Amino acid sequence: MESGIRRIADSLNTVIKDTDSVTILLETTAGQGTSVGYRFEHLRAIIDLSEKPENLAVCLDTCHVFAAGYPINTSRGCAALVDEFDSIIGLDNLVLIHLNDSIRECGSRVDRHMHLGEGKIGRNGLVALLNENRLADVPVIIETPKTKNDEADRMNLQRIYDYMKDSQNPRDSDIDTSRSTTM
Fold first, then answer.
1. Which residues partner with 56 through β-bridges?
2. Number of CB atoms found within 10 A of residue 47's CB
3. Burial class (CB in 10 A: 0-12, 13-18, 19+), 48
4. Buried b / exposed e along 133-168 (16+ C-beta atoms within 10 A)
5. Pairing of β 113-114 and β 101-102
6. Tens digit of each residue's pLDDT (9 = 90 or more) over 42-58
7. Could you tell me if 42 and 1 are in contact, meaning their C-beta atoms sit under 8 angstroms apart?
8. The pTM is what?
């Protein structure tokens, strides 16, 4: 792992050495095989080894962090994820979220995206994440399986709107609506 982290940091240093205007996003991974980046500590180490850490930021992928073992299928799990991310990397370094569900269970380390609410993160986890105040200013991109037309994207976008509306009347007592935000 240390060798992989060093190789990534060295490669990034080569890429960004002559620029000040580019920000490279390090995306969280699910941890399949020998992947680096499934623990926040990996990303922190890469940033720390960078000659230009100001040119690096993080994209958090919900399927990836769930598969990596972060239990974001509950509001407690979402809050814990944000706490841990903030303490290790810093929320100011989180600039994008890839929003998706996971076909596989928490800790499987298998990267298989699913439509929102149809996987193991589920409605409750996604409602909690979308309504986490500390993430309110972080842009979100839907990254789910595609169809020949835009129907899947429209369906997932509608689910986001429904989840934001449903957060006012949660069906699960684990959801903390005191942190609701609007999209």
1. 24
2. 21
3. exposed
4. ebbeeeebebbbeeeeeeebeebbeebbeebbebbe
5. antiparallel
6. 999 999 999 999 999 99
7. yes
8. 0.89
